[in-house]
Design brief:
It is built from six helices and six strands. It is an alpha/beta fold and about 220 residues long. It has a six-stranded parallel beta sheet, sandwiched between helices. The chain binds zinc ion.
Length: about 220
């Protein structure tokens, strides 16, 4: 059971109402949340990578079948998941951010942060491995988490430019302005040179999108 699945089980146990997503009447695979006959669990396979991820999730996002952050935990072994709280930082998250083996980056669009915090590349000349902190929720929730988390305000902000997509050899819709969490993570993996993991994650995201669209049109 990966970190996301642990968090999901925990959150589900606390939840008194069942999340009713689109197509909820059809039986879903309890793991990948896709229609059972289109289950994509087989492609959940860990790939080698030289970086880690910390998913800081809005409490509502954890149970959403549309969530794609969970696919990162299927591919990258060093994936940690936390539920965000406005009141206080998670102790385990703080310990992770302060762990000397990691160089944390808060992944967020450049124009929300002070320019001196923003970087578009990874710091080189360090033995620390990149730890990508992803704020996972709707866009509105992510912005709220960004602005209301003082414990993240000292981290460098890593911003991806939309035109960077193709240079990583990953397919991307040119018309799309907002990427799903898994797509952003695939780009970060590619940026770090973890090509196989990047491709696997991108593929997993596309399989999920396909299966979900097929389910809706069914
Ligand atoms: Zn499945």
């Amino acid at each position: 059971m990966n970190r996301f699945t642990q968090l999901y089980q925990q959150r589900k146990a606390q939840s008194t109402t069942e999340f009713v997503g689109r197509g909820a009447r059809r039986a879903r695979c309890p793991v990948c949340q896709v229609r059972q006959d289109a289950c994509i669990c087989a492609s959940a396979k860990l790939q080698p990578s030289g970086c880690g991820f910390a998913l800081v999730m809005h409490t509502k996002e954890v149970l959403r079948p549309s969530n794609t952050g969970r696919f990162i935990a299927d591919i990258v072994a060093d994936t940690h998941a936390f539920i965000w709280s406005r009141q206080e930082a998670d102790e385990a998250l703080l310990a992770l951010l302060n762990d000397p083996q990691w160089q944390p980056y808060l992944v967020f669009p450049a124009h929300f942060a002070e320019p001196e915090r923003v970087t578009e590349t990874l710091h080189h000349g360090t033995t620390k491995k990149p730890l990508f902190v992803m704020l996972d929720g709707s866009w509105r929730e992510a912005r709220k988490m960004f602005h209301q988390s003082p414990w993240l305000s000292s981290l460098p902000v890593l911003a991806l430019r939309p035109d960077q997509a193709s240079s990583y050899g990953l397919r991307s819709s040119p018309l799309k302005e907002q990427w799903a969490t898994a797509e952003v993570a695939a780009r970060l993996l590619a940026m770090n040179g973890d090509t196989l993991a990047a491709q696997s994650l991108q593929q997993r995201f596309e399989d999920f999108t396909q299966a979900t669209l097929a389910g809706r049109c069914h």
